[in-house]
Amino acid sequence: MYTLIHHQKMQKFDKIRPFYDAEINEAIRSSVNHPMMKALMNFTFPEVDDSVWKDQLIKTHSIRDFQCNFIYQSVQKVLEKSSDGLTTSGFEKLEKNTSYLFISNHRDIILDTSLLNAALFDHGLVMTASAIGDNLVNRSFLLTLSKLNRNFLVQRGLPPRELLQSSKLLSEYIQQLLLRENRSVWIAQREGRTKDGNDATHPGVLKMLAMASEDENLMSYFKNLKIVPVSISYEYDPTDALKMPQLMAEANNEVYIKEKNEDFMTLLSGIIGQKKRIHIHLAMF
Q1: What is the pTM of this model?
Q2: Is 11 or 24 the better-scoring residue by pLDDT?
């Protein structure tokens, strides 16, 4: 009976959760010949024949193996080709085998969480499940890649009633990860990347997190979540020019409508563009 109840409880997260390890190999096999997978692997392993990385990919059966053997290597190549290196501070204050809720400023769609996870891996700490807006993964390959990389979906553009239900589900899933699965979580301090450098946590993020607390004292609940503020800094922002149209529209009190492929172009620009020095700082209380 317990197993059935647990299964039903976990099923409700199916529309937002990443892949389970049992689903990883099938997802990889369905994507191994995709042109974007080839582009990612050729960038990561430029001297390696395609048959080699394909053979290694189809032998992969867990998110951790996919992250460590492929995505971690991709991040190192990004650092090598388009930065002057990554430095960190505060990681030594975290305890191993312990889950934390990282609430971060947001500068880059993909790299913020990828660089944090690379640093957590280097320090032997629990890597994160990371929130990503479903509007950023509306291409089937990007959705598969995000779920392979332990991203969970934040549903955007919902009417008020559905938004409330979605927020409750998201809150419960984050609670499940942190308190029952010992899995760290990354979430941005506000919806979307900060365009003007004003890094203020949106109260709605904290309200969403509190929705799963039920009758527990809220301060005690937040303490149990082990919240760690994260600050990430890029010396150069390769997407700065891409942010200007939205900032200009907001300055003129105009409604800004994104171009069809704007998020995808911003994603690529952030990865490929020059960032110079990058630093991640964790603040522990």
Answers
A1: 0.87
A2: 24
Torsion of CA 124, 125, 127, 128, to 10 degrees: -170
**Secondary structure (DSSP) of 142-189:** HHHHHHHTTEEEEP-S--HHHHHHHHHHHHHHHHIIIIIS--EEEEES
Helix or strand run (H / E) with residue 17:
none
Q: Is 55 helix (H, G, I), strand (E, B) or coil?
A: helix
Do residues 195 and 247 make contact, with C-beta atoms less than 8 angstroms apart? yes
Structure tokens at 213: 């607390």
A 10 A CB-CB count for 80 gives 9
Count the residues in the chain.
285
Report pLDDT digits (tens) over 86-129: 999 999 999 999 999 999 998 888 899 999 999 999 999 999 99
Long-range contacts formed by 192-199: CB under 8 A, 24+ apart: 192/106, 192/133, 193/106, 193/107, 193/108, 193/109, 193/239, 193/243, 194/105, 194/106, 194/107, 195/243, 195/246, 195/247, 196/247, 199/105, 199/231
What is the per-residue pLDDT across 134-177, written as a single tens digit (0 to 9) for each?
988 888 999 999 999 999 999 988 998 999 999 999 999 999 99
Mean residue pLDDT across the chain: 87
- Cβ–Cβ < 8 Å for 177, 183: yes
Q: Residue with structure tokens 């395609």?
A: 50
Q: What is the mean pLDDT of residues 224-244?
A: 82
Whether the pLDDT of residue 216 is over 70: the answer is yes
Q: 């960190």: which residue's tokens?
A: 88
